[in-house]
Amino acid sequence: MTHPQLARLKTLQQGTLPELLGLEVTAFDESGLHAALDIKPHHLAPNGYLHAASVVMLADSACGYGCMLNLPQGAHSFTTIELKSNHLSTARDGRLECIAKPVHLGRTTQVWDATVTAAGKTIALFRCTQMVLWPKA
Question: Hey, where are the domains in the chain?
Answer without folding.
Answer: 6-133
